Amino acid sequence: MSERSAKEIVESVLPGESATARAAHASLKGERRGLRGLLPFLGPAFVAAVAYVDPGNFATNISAGAQYGYLLLWVILASNLMAMLIQSMSAKLGIATGKNLPEVCRERFPRPVTLALWVQAEVIAMATDLAEFIGAALALNLLFGIPLFTAGLLTAVAAFGILELQRRGFRPLEAAISAMVGIIVLAFAFQMFYAEPEGDRILAGLFTPQFVDTNSVLLAAGILGATVMPHVIYLHSALTQRRVVGRTEEEKKRIFRFELVDVVIAMAIAGTINASMLIMAAALFNANGLFDVGDIDLAFEELRVLVSDKAAIIFGVALLASGFSSSSVGTMSGQVVMQGFIDRQIPLFLRRLVTMAPALVILALSVNPSKALVISQVVLSFGIPFALIPLLIFCRNRGVMGALTNHRVTTAVATVVVALIVSLNVFLLYQTFFG
């Protein structure tokens, strides 16, 4: 596994070499219909969706629910709709061009620009690993009492184990990551059962945009601004670029229609998980006057006190599944970034050591895990424009996208979304350093 390159990661199974690829082409010919026709295309968006339920989301959503109850549920709904649009564009770029976003940047931009994009993407990869490693390590610490540094090392081993499934093709890896997303879904379904939230307040929170004070605006900006993670934009285009290759423009359109369903389903599941986190915190913490439950470890302990040991353990298992799966996805993204921007490859083992080093240093120094998660989100904010803006530029370019070029309405909506997300991240950075 240590010698596998990014190219092998995104090309591990080419069309015609697997039952999945053959089934996909049968669906394109109309020989498989309904759910049978859709199944071969499901998977890439589920891998990408892991970024939307990573440990950073746990901290943000729980803090929002504890402080403001159901008030900011609408922000999660809005951010999820944005995620669907952005990830569908990333998937479409891979289908249309047969290249991932970093490769298209290398092909279309001057060399100095490409190198600058690569450097910032590597910093983003380290920040991504920071959040994911710390989340998984914290889960191991809470569940088993393992010291954080040792737990971080165990997280690295687990991430390699998950990535090892790639040797057998993309389907086993997608299945493993989807299974972990399923664990998170089940965990928060149980939490909702324990919490017994108020249905009318959930509906009001989802469909009534409102704020109550300046801090609620800031927290909403945090949820919206951190909606899209740069590394998963790069990765999603790689996951679709050679998974099923369209031989004609019409065939590419049909592939994208199938992948769009994949995106909607996966992002809807991720949005439901995020909403469940906030609802649980609202029904348990806010309702009991525990407005300051923002740290994950504090949430774990309060669940133990308010509900039961079982509820706390289920929460910890969900956090562990989130950390393990998102750590693996982060490593894949790092390989895609290096191979795409500078056409270089290094052994995956070395790649993992480089990106996880900052996380292990922070764990060794006993820095507050939740504060480290916040730091990682600030760093990630810097990288969002450098992924979103090139994606928007390419998706509206007919010379790049061919028949899959964005419609004018799609481009207009995407421009507004990108401008909003970038503005919110600039605002968050200003508040972090000068507010």
Summarize the structure.
This protein is mostly helical and 435 residues long. Helix content is 78%, strand content 0%.
Which secondary structure elements does this structure contain, and how are they paired or packed?
Layout: H1 6-11, H2 19-28, H3 34-38, H4 44-49, H5 55-68, H6 73-97, H7 101-108, H8 111-144, H9 148-164, H10 170-195, H11 199-207, H12 214-225, H13 230-241, H14 249-284, H15 296-306, H16 309-342, H17 348-364, H18 369-395, H19 398-401, H20 408-434
Helix pairs in contact: 5-12, 5-14, 6-11, 6-12, 6-13, 6-14, 6-18, 7-16, 8-9, 8-16, 8-17, 8-18, 9-16, 9-17, 10-14, 10-16, 12-20, 13-16, 13-18, 15-16, 18-20
The domain count comes to: 1
Going by CATH, the architecture would be Up-down Bundle
Task: Let me know the CATH homologous superfamily.
Answer: Amino acid/polyamine transporter I
The Cα radius of gyration reads 21 Å
Span of the ends, CA to CA: 46 Å
By CATH reckoning, the class would read: Mainly Alpha
